Amino acid sequence: MFKSFSMDLAGRPLVVEIGRVAAQANGAALMHYGDTVVLSTATASEKPREGIDFFPLSVEYEEKLYSVGRIPGGFNKREGKASENSVLTSRVIDRPMRPLFPKDYRNDVTLNNLVMSVDQDCSPELTAMLGSAIATVVSDIPFDGPTAATMVGMIDGEMIFNPTNAQKAVSDLALTVASTRDKVIMIEAGANEIDEDKMIEAIFAAHELNQKVIAFIDTIVAECGKPKHAYTSCEVPADLYDAMVAFITPEAMETAVFTDEKQVREENIRVIKNSLEEHFAEVNPEWIPFIEEAVYKFQKKTVRKMILKDQKRPDGRAVTEIRKLAAEVDLLPRVHGSGMFTRGQTQVMTITTLGTLTDAQRLDSLDENEKSKRYMHHYNFPSYSVGETKPSRGPGRREIGHGALAEKALVPVLPSEEEFPYAIRTVSEIMESNGSTSQGSICASSLSLMAAGVPIKAAVAGISVGLVTGDTDDDYIVLTDIQGLEDFFGDMDFKVAGTHKGITAIQMDIKIHGLTRKIVEEAIRKTKTARTYILDGVMNPVIAEARPEVGTYAPKIIQIQVDPAKISEIIGQKGKTINKIIDETGVKIDITDDGKVSVCGVEAEGINRALEIIKTITQDIEEGQIFTGKVVRIMQFGAFVELAPNKDGLVHISKLAKNRVEKVEDVVNIGDIVTVKVIEVDKMGRINLSIKDVE
């Protein structure tokens, strides 16, 4: 049965249609936010997938170019692989949804969001987040929802909810907050050095608005919600767990995991698994398929008890203690900039490469504001970084997400195009991983950018805090600088990056049903303390500010402004003029429609010569000016000197030298570079030059 529901959301109508389309999905919602339309569906398999120990949730966000009235490029004229924005949006939808499914649920679930129409002032990403929650909560799939999401911008210190495209373009904040009925369950933010108090205020203002959306969703569920279906639990058998604990003992498991060496811990656990398999093969062979998950559960309980009750971390650190830190720059001699940041067994090297603005990445985006980006951060996580072996298949969703987070953290401190007319690419190579490589990549990238001579406004550092909770909201502990084991068995990975002045990026992942305000505030405060320590104690002593110039092997770019009407003269017929300049000087030249000319080269001599030629082309020749040019023709009465392509002047034989010249070739030959002075520009525009009058 088709039903429609509506509410006002941040001054625009939100309309949800249930039962209009996709009736065979377990749940479907056709979402309208303004003129943005997204079809969100939730489907589940009838039976659990065998042989897995995780919940197989897939989230898809499909961008269709027909939604903005465009035909895809390329030979096939259809959408290709998911864009970076699609991947990042899928991750943002996934993070608040995943913790609310039953932990012992093993049925495949797919949440699909099809973007069908885009109103630039009504975010399709936000619409898809709401649609996924509604489609799931009205379905028969077990789910402890609903959730709601709100985006927050900030202009001149004032918060704006679900900002329009024009507002986003000038906003100092791009914050997305997802909530359950009582708690915050997901935070994603990019910010222009927003202080901690303002960020906390914005998070909980969004949380308050989310409660109104959840009340609206409740009315939809009351009329359209299906009873949740029964499912086969994949919980470890209680008898197996008890037998395992009796055989291994809690003391032995604590000894196995209590080490700061990841490889040692993994070997200890491998020995435990082997002994369990040998033991149960004799007494209960039917339990062997459950051993992997049973040992995971035993480790988790042991680590959580050690941290929460005994105040002991697996590597022996104090609750607020950061692992051993180290920073370096200039590791690679020929690259434009390099930096390495080490935190315990997490090590990241970032390489910076500079190019002209034509090297900026062009985006085929649904967002009309996003045509290209000049700063690109890429993150690579090879298997050797965790002591494993597998072939490289290109970046996965996690790598794309971590790269985007670091990019978001660093964009606010980058110089403008006018200040630094370069395209910039940083690549973070993970050398070793034991937790929080994304934040290590932010620190390494900041070091690398400064080493490359990129005049960033301030150094940026990132740190992650974790959480272990007990039976009540007040029974918890927040851990500074979580390692891999604490992330794996803990409840939260709260990543915050920023400068001394404020926050530039946040990403929060949790495995529980939300965080109280008290926990969020404590987490943000602890990241501020840790971030300050990293900046002052580790990064600044190595390199405190950007080097005054780009490196020896980096291109040098000088930008000048010319009259846009003169651009055609620089380019010349079929590009002949500009290509001649490039061939002569060995530089690269970029010209924008508004007359900005960027000359890029490694050698200063070639850059200066190209600039001189361009200035000569674009300026009017006047008496008294001095030029350097090439002799291109010799006649009996004098020599023609090329001041710039298609702009020659005559040096009469009488003006070649102070003494009498019998033959032009006695003074100059074709190809000679000479310095000349303009002595006359006649009514016909002909230029007369002199060598002897150059002072």
From TrEMBL:
Q: Which GO terms describe its molecular function?
A: 3'-5'-RNA exonuclease activity; magnesium ion binding; polyribonucleotide nucleotidyltransferase activity; RNA binding
Name one matching Pfam family. RNase_PH
Localisation per UniProt entry: Cytoplasm
**Positions bound to Mg(2+):** 487, 493
Keywords for this protein: Cytoplasm, Magnesium, Metal-binding, Nucleotidyltransferase, RNA-binding, Transferase
Q: What does this protein do?
A: Involved in mRNA degradation. Catalyzes the phosphorolysis of single-stranded polyribonucleotides processively in the 3'- to 5'-direction.
Protein's name in the database: Polyribonucleotide nucleotidyltransferase
Native source species: Anaerobium acetethylicum
Lineage of the source organism?
Bacteria, Bacillati, Bacillota, Clostridia, Lachnospirales
The coding gene here is pnp
